[in-house]
Design goal:
The chain has 128 residues and is of the alpha/beta class. It has a single domain, classed as NAD(P)-binding Rossmann-like Domain (Rossmann fold). Helix content is 32%, strand content 18%. The strands form 2 sheets. The protein has a 5-stranded parallel beta sheet with strand order 5-4-3-6-7. It has a two-stranded antiparallel ribbon with strand order 1-2. It starts with 6 loop residues before the first strand and ends with a strand.
């Protein structure tokens, strides 16, 4: 069963992590993380992970734009995947870093894949 972190609701009704909580964020250092989407959001998060010492060999990215993937691989030394299905099947955690209008399309495509990601391994990233 997935552990729920201690959260609070802000004035706008958004749920955020309670930073005064004693809840612990799970240790992901031994997990392989797949980024679905190779744009600015993924590049930022990957850069932060690498800067904090996360191993590049534990990061996989997929994107339909091969140039974006080649750029991420050259810049950070990460693994690239030829398809979203391939990235998901090789990962412990999946970060969906696509534009909001693409999320619905990705979700439906993933449900028809041989191994759709279980909900407890799937996280969504979006800009504000």
């Amino acid at each position: 069963m997935r552990q729920r972190l201690n959260t609070v609701t802000d004035q706008r009704g958004r749920e955020t992590l309670n930073h005064n909580s004693t809840a612990r964020i799970p240790d992901l250092t031994s997990k392989t993380i797949a980024f679905i989407g190779g744009g600015n959001m993924s590049a930022s998060l990957i850069g932060g992970l690498i800067a904090d010492g996360y191993k590049a060999k534990r990061i996989i990215a997929s994107d339909p734009d091969g140039e974006k993937l080649a750029g991420l691989a050259a810049r950070f030394g990460i693994i690239t995947a030829p398809s979203n299905d391939d990235a998901v099947s090789r990962a412990d955690v999946v970060l969906l870093a696509v534009k909001p209008q693409m999320m619905k399309e990705w979700y439906w495509a993933s449900q028809n894949s041989p191994e759709p990601p279980p909900p407890d391994r799937l996280y969504s990233c979006r800009g504000t």
